[in-house]
Amino acid sequence: MKILQVGRVDLSVFVLLSLLGACAPGYLPPPVSPQLVKFSSEPTNELQRGHLIHQAKCAKCHAFENPADYDADEWADEIMPRMAKKSKLGFADESAVLAYLLAARQLPPPADPN
Questions:
Q1: Residue 9 in domain
Q2: Least packed by Cβ within 10 Å: which of 9, 42, 49, 79?
Q3: Would you say residue 6 lies in a domain?
């Protein structure tokens, strides 16, 4: 009986650590900077809004992925509509997040910390 209990504790610790690891930041979302603004035709306040909405809604469920890992059509036609529906974003909020991500995908890749 004690072995079974230890097994449950070990499993619980594994699950907890796995969940914490999933919440650890990967690629950090870039702030709205002059460099990021250069890559968009949207006004700065719209990009800032998209960044804030991303942090409030998207980052609740998953770490920020490098937007350059997907092309602009994937973001606009597949990823954002699906994710906006899941997170219950309205059209204006979806558009702001999309504008932010499309600008962020053109930034140089982040430096490798290793």
A1: no
A2: 9
A3: no
Spatial distance between the Cα atoms of 63 and 59, rounded to a whole number of angstroms:
6
| 47, 33 Cβ separation under 8 angstroms | no
Q: What pLDDT, in 10s, does the model give residues 2-60?
A: 444 444 444 444 443 344 444 444 568 899 999 999 999 999 999 999 999 999 998 88
* Domain that includes residue 80, residue range: 26-104
Phi, psi angles (nearest 5°) of residue 39:
-90, 10
Q: What would the two tokens of residue 16 be?
A: 């907890």
**DSSP 3-state assignment of 19?**
helix
DSSP for residue 106? T
Nearest CA among 81, 88, 79 for reference residue 53:
88
H-state helical runs in 24-76: 34-38, 44-56, 72-74
In the chain, the amino acid numbered 95 is S
Note the Cα 59 to chain centre separation in Å.
5
